[in-house]
Write a structure and sequence with these properties.
The chain has 175 residues and is mainly alpha-helical. The chain has 8 helices and 3 strands; from the N terminus they run βαααββααααα.
């Protein structure tokens, strides 16, 4: 049911919680694919050129913009809705957020248990978790009875990454 404002005008459409302009990484996450796979599909559809830049067609049709404004220079952003047909033709459907949260929680829970054949830890894998999923994944981990919790983003994470990288390179100083 549409409610009219005074003067007979319809209210402006409600803002969606999801951004319309996304990086290749974020666009790929919607469909559960990597940024590389996402870019390949856009290239096959003629929306990216051989160097990975948006094609003239992509820019003219509103599928892509450079930077935050049309005709601006900087990182390319892709329009979620305008690119949707490319992914549907490839047989992909958006992954529901609840499914994504459940998959992350199951993966991190399994990594917490450990296995001799897996060389990464739950903490290392959690570094790749999108920031907007930290709270819901932590809630799901608690719900399934896993004690692991993803750390909030910030300097502590950076320090852990830096220490891990020094350890891996063998340049860590003993205390």
């Amino acid at each position: 049911m549409l409610h009219l404002l005074r003067g007979g005008q319809a209210p402006p459409p409600a803002a969606t919680a999801e951004p319309e302009w996304l990086s290749l990484t974020d666009l790929g996450r919607i469909y559960g694919i990597s940024a590389v796979h996402c870019g390949r599909l856009l290239s096959e559809a003629g929306l990216r050129d051989a160097s990975g830049q948006p094609s003239r067609h992509a820019l003219r049709s509103g599928c892509a913009i450079r930077g935050h404004q049309p005709h601006a220079h900087g990182p390319t952003q892709w329009h979620r809705s305008h690119c949707q047909a490319v992914f549907q033709r490839a047989g992909l459907e958006p992954i529901q957020r609840t499914t994504l949260v459940q998959q992350w929680a199951q993966l991190l829970s399994a990594l917490t248990e450990g296995s001799p054949s897996i060389s990464t830890s739950a903490a290392q894998m959690a570094e790749d978790l999108p920031g907007e999923l930290v709270d819901p994944v932590n809630a799901e981990l608690r719900q399934i009875g896993c004690s692991f919790q993803v750390a909030e983003r910030g300097t502590a994470r950076h320090n852990r990454q830096s220490k891990r990288r020094r350890d891996e390179r063998g340049t860590a100083r003993p205390l």
